[in-house]
Amino acid sequence: MSxxxxxxxxxxxxxxxxxxxxxxxxxxxxxxILIGAALLWMTPTFGLLVSSFRPATAVGSTGWWTAxxxxxxxxxxxxxxxxxxxxMARSFINSLIITIPATILPILVAGFxxxxxxxxxxxxxxxxxxxxxxxxxxxxxxTLIPVLRLFTxxxxxxxxxxxWLAHTAYGLPLAIFLLRNFFGSLPKELLESAYLDxxxxxxxxxxxxLPLSVPALASLAIFQFLWVWNDLLVALVYLQSPSKAPMxxxxxxxxxxxxxxxxxxxxxxxxxxxxxxIIFFALQRYFVEGITAGAVKG
Length: 298
Prior knowledge:
Blueprint: H1 2-52, H2 56-61, H3 77-85, H4 88-119, H5 125-134, H6 140-153, H7 160-184, H8 188-196, H9 201-212, H10 214-229, H11 233-238, H12 247-257, H13 262-296
Helix pairs in contact: 1-13, 3-13, 4-7, 4-10, 4-12, 5-7, 7-10, 7-13, 10-13, 12-13
């Protein structure tokens, strides 16, 4: 009897092995395509990183892929020059001052609005939500002159609060749309139980809705952070202050003043990419789940 059991167990192991092998072989073309696409997508970034550590003579005469041939020529002078002489360090701080509040504010406002649209009853709720979603198709360029005139009248041009308000307003339609759909997908019975226990709307929002919505909040934070961090147009129109210029404006000025010194431009560009990359990889496990839920559930 034991021999039969051992034989059966061995057969089962072999079956599982061959099943897994067959599944792997069937998916191998897909894996090759995905890996190839990822490598192709990452090649420019890797080339930019390598070029940022090369001296000017090497960058101007050879491609970045030749950097790994002996003798090696790598230097930190590009980063030193950009950070110390071209104001990139100050611009990095300015970008943080702009981006962090401009990421938190729309998510906070959109969270309250989305909770109201998803779970509170009031006249015109659906019509107002459709109007908010319709704002997604309005180009930012249409609003630049009217908002600039308004900011000029209230003395907000060239100030951080002004650009915080601008980015908050531009980010609200998408944020409300995603969060409302995610909030609406949460179990109705859970909220009803909380209300039966005497919980207020604020308590339900902070103790139930927000903890359960971490994936959606994280994915939205990634979108908003990347959009604000990489923004040039809004900062160019509303900020108009060299001392408060973010990295995008500083790099834009470097392009015109150092158009032939590519090694400085590559270093400046990679400095601007470091923090978004860290943010994305730190929150990527929430990214797909949050966006999928916010896009397809209602």
